[in-house]
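Weekly puzzle thread! Below is a chain. First person to post its structure in token form gets bragging rights.
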Amino acid sequence: MSVNLRIPGPTPCPDDVLQAMSRQMINHRGPEFADIIGRITESLQRLFETKNDVLTLSSAGTGAIEAAVVNTLSVGDRALCVSIGVFGDRFADIAKTYGVNVETLSFEQGTAADPQEVTDALKKDSSFKAVMVTHNETSTGVTNDLEAIAKAIRSVRPDILILVDAISSLGSVPLPIDAWDLDVVFTGSQKGWMVPPGMAMVSVSKRGWDAVETAKIPRYYFDYKKAKSYLDKGETPWTPAVSVYFAMDVALKKLEAEGLARIHERHARLGQFTRDGVKALGLKLLADDRVASKTVTAVRVPEGVDGPALNKMMRTEYNTVLAGGQGPLTGKIFRIGHLGLVSEADLQACLDALKLALPRVGFQPAMAAR
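Winning reply:
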């Protein structure tokens, strides 16, 4: 029996995407790779809904966060980090590591950021050079209203940098980069893009490039300027994860054939299906439906239930891999990923397994057979 991988990344990949990775290596300084990276870049611009430069880096998502920091900020710069969970805190921690003076505006885990509070923070301190925000917080299953947050930021500071962690949102939920006037927005191949880990993709606006020119934090491997100069030649500065580029080339063709509107509708539908199924079991969600993520659902572990024991049983006896809680939510929630290559049947199988496992760990599901 195949494993039902229900974590929010890495996500399952289509067979033809995986098969593409088995191709023999090619010269990453040759014309064949230039064609591939050219196609990938143009496709990403369309799916990002941007005319900005789009760069690809051989890295996981955390590398993309680090790249955004070191390319746009300097030691001592003031930055406001809007955090609603573990990955928002990680954004702040990385910036602090490089000497950025970060003020973190934190919100209760399981809730979304309040745009008015972001506005108030900017009004109190005019020295901020950048706002760092996570669009979709996978640790809590919450999606920020990024459009409203960006509008609030621009109403106070029209020229401030907006740096967006869209690792688990871009390519799955609406995020029109140019329409929302965002400066540096990044994502990772292992999420809704249906590709194995290894590629980070980032959009950089003119405002972002202006920041790159003045940023003083040292960088080498993650240097945007090097990446852009080599992209103009159809290359990457360093040896790329060639197999991941093969896979992304195939995956992007599939996604463009489906179309953004249908991709967004699919994730919205699957998110609702998951939340409805979880609630029908008598379980409680961490996030309110109004801010609940369309790519991952966070479920409260029922009182008296050992969360890690439930996850282990699901994995070892029902071939279903759930994600546990992180940080302060460790042992208090479990998470069901529903982004990328996933269907109602996959999610129903997960819910059916939960219905069988829950009584064995001390909770009686309320749901009758669906």
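Puzzle host: Confirmed. Bonus trivia for everyone else. The chain has a mean pLDDT of 97.
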